[in-house]
Amino acid sequence: MTFEDFENYSYFYDLPEEEESPQSTLSIAHMISLSFYSVAFLLGVPGNAIVIWFMGFKWDKSVSTLWFLNLAIADFIFVLFLPLYITYVAMGFHWPFGKWLCKMNSFIALLNMFASVFFLTFISLDRYIRLVHPVFSYKYRTIKNTLILSVIIWMSAAVIGGPALYFRDTATALNNVTICYNNFHVHDRELILLRHHILIWVRLAFGYLFPLLTMVICYSLLIVKVKRRTVLTSSRLFWTIVAVVVAFFLCWTPYHIFSIVELSAHHDENLHDLLQDGIPLSTGLAFINSCLNPILYVLISKKFQAQVKTTVSEVLKLALWEVSRSGTVSEQLWSSENTHAPVHHCETAQ
Q: Considering the domain boundaries, does residue 21 fall inside one?
């Protein structure tokens, strides 16, 4: 099951006329998850847009800024699609947007997950290479190579998330409620189980275990091999990267745990109630990750703080100047109208 599907779990194999329809009222877990989605959208859109603006247009291009720029783009694309899913949950899991948006919404969510974790992995590798292998870094750590790797990462994330474009489907229940779900197969239970297991374990391996192992190894080697640890730990870039990585895994770990638990629900119906609450809450927490990175940049990076303050100051000055100018123009127009206005003499009655 993907994290776009709470109510119609993938272990509901058949979708005939007797299919269970989604519940009409939202549970407390769904309400909490809905608030998570809303927060992710309200903070994620402006936050990631600001990061993209600074790193893409205001700052000088460097390898580090390109990595974080791609990370912000992945989060920004995802949060732009969140209103579709917010509407879906708020309407009692009724999907009014059609089959293709059902597929695209799920694909974008998976693309974000894999692109984000892949870029975080390469950010960690880049930091390790730069500090431990400076000669190699000087020769190959270039903007051109970073752009090439970025394209490869986007393509890899699209390939791994691609099955959503094939399996996601819509179905209408008896009460005319349309759901967006994983249509692994209509009737073949064994094929459903096989496809479900393959997708979950591939996502777990490439979207969680491999990146986690890579990052742990990179930072462990950094701590061991960098003799002057103060050089490492005093760097705000180091702590920014650590905070972003930790935030990603704290947000996404519950989702992957419940994805594994859900595989057991094929054989144990007692897990359904646990998943009905656990899946939406863990998914909501995962979605929050898309708005955390800009907040972490502001809290940790002095450069980002200074840039934000400067930009806000410039915007306020421009706004005050425009207000002042509009007021001056209005006064001039009013004065001009009164100066050139025709004088009317009142005629008194004789």
A: no
